[in-house]
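for the writeup, i need someone to sanity check this before i put it in the appendix. the sequnce is what the collaborator sent (i think, or maybe the updated version? ugh). structure was predicted straight from it, no edits. if anything looks off just tell me and ill rerun, i have time this weekend
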Amino acid sequence: MPINAIVRYFDLQSGRRPTAAVPHGAGGPSYPVLPQYLALVVGIVVQPYLSYYVQHGEWVLDPSSFLGRLAFGLIVGALAFPALYKNAFDPARPLFVQLCAIFAGGIGWQSVIQGGAKAALGLS
């Protein structure tokens, strides 16, 4: 896989960057990505707790596994965030709507990672 494809994947502003020459210092608006990334991580972290609740009808929070889930969420979030961000971010929509879409993507993180891996490997 060419390195340019990897760089384009992680370049969150590539779709909003002008393609023509822009005078130095006259870049477009910058959009903060931290709230969206945190919404994704929260979705990834709470997903097993929600799944357990759906299966058993009771909440079980295990504090001993929370730090591991948080570390896992941060890592998987970093891998899945560019794809979700580029599909969910629309500056015309309210931030809350975008955060909800990204949070839902975090709950379905497995399909995002599997889809990204298939696309990266050229599988169908």
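The mean pLDDT is 75. The first helix runs from residue 3 to 10.
thx in advance!!
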